[in-house]
Amino acid sequence: MFTQKKVYAPYVSPFDPCRPMTVKTYETPPQLYLPVQPPNLPQWDPYKALQMGTLWPAYYSPYEGRGK
Amino acid sequence: MHKQLPEEYYKLLHDLQAVDFVLVELNLYLDTHPDDKNAVEQYNHYAHKKQLLKRDFEQQFGPLQGFGNSYSRYPFDWKEAPWPWQV
Amino acid sequence: MWIYEKKLQYPVRVSKCDPHLAKLLIEQYGGADGELAAALRYLNQRYTVPDKVIGVLNDIGTEEFAHLEMIATMVYKLTKDATPEQIEAAGLAPHYADHDKALFYHNAAGVPFTATYIQAKGDPIADLYEDIAAEEKARATYQWLIDLTDDPDIKDSLKFLREREVVHSLRFRECVEILKEEQDSKKIF
Hints:
The complex is a heterotrimer. Chain B has helices spanning 7-32, 37-61. Chain B is mainly alpha-helical. By secondary structure, chain C is mainly alpha-helical. Chain A binds chain C through residues 27, 29-31, 34-39, 50-54, 59-61, 63, 65-66, and chain C through 10, 139, 142-143, 146-147, 159-164, 166-167, 169-170, 173-174, 177, 188-189.
C-alpha cells in the first residue's frame, strides 16, 4: 500500500514578505509504485472506467486541487 | 440552422465512447503484455461490441469513419455537421 | 496510415462562459508539455525504437491526437461566441489581433510551438526516459490547470486527461523494463 500525496514543511524565514505556507504537498501517483502492471487486476465497468480515465482502480490517481 | 440532435444521439455516443475506451486501455496494456490470454479475449469481445454499436449509431446518425471504413448514405454525409467539437 | 473517427474520446462539456480559461488551456495545445508535443514526439521516435516497443509509441502517439482534439474543443467552446469586448476582457486580445478566434499552436504565454520541445536521440533508453518525463510533466500541467478553474465540467475533462498521463507513464516505464530484460530470464508478465 502506498499514499498518493506526500507532505513536507519548507523552511520559513522570519524575513519572508508574504504569509508563509508552512506545509507543501506533492503527488506520488501509482505508476511510481507499480511500474509494471501485474495481470488480472480488478477492473471498473466501461462507463466508470471512461469517467475515471482508466480501466483499473489500482492505477487511479485522484486530484482535487492543491491544498486539498 | 442545424437540426438539434435527439437524446438518443448522446446516449449512443456515450455507449460507444465507453466501449472504445476499454479498447484503448486494453490495446495499450496488450502492447506491453502480449501474452496475457485473458486480455486478448476481452479485447476481441469488446471489438465485437464496438462493431455492433458502430453499426447502430451509423444507421441513425451517419458514418463515423471516412476513407471507406464506414458506408455512406446519400447525399454523401461524412462531411455533414456536427463535427465532434461542435456537439 | 490514420483513420479519423468522428467522435471525441471523452465527452467534453463546458458549463461556464469564461473565455479567459481558453488562454490557459492552450498551454496543453501548443505548449512544451502539451498534447501536440507528445503526439509528434512519440510518432517520430517510433521509427527507430526496437521492434518490441514500437506498438506503445505508435498507439500512445495516436491517442495524444485525440487529447489534442479535446483541448481544442474546450478552447473552441469557450471562445466561439465571445464578442471582441469579452475577448479583450479575457486577455485574449493579442491572440485575436493575429488569429481572430482561430486556434493556434502556442502556449499560454503566447510562445509559438517549436520542434525544440521534442527530442529523438535514437538511443531507446534516452528516448523512453524523455517520454516518461514528458508524461509526468503533462500530468503536472493538468494539475495546475485544474487548480486554476472552478468549472466542474472542465475539471472533469482535465482530470480524465491527467489520468491518461498516469497510464501513459506506466506504459513507457514498462517499455524500459522490456528493453532491460535479459534474453533468458523473463521477468515481465
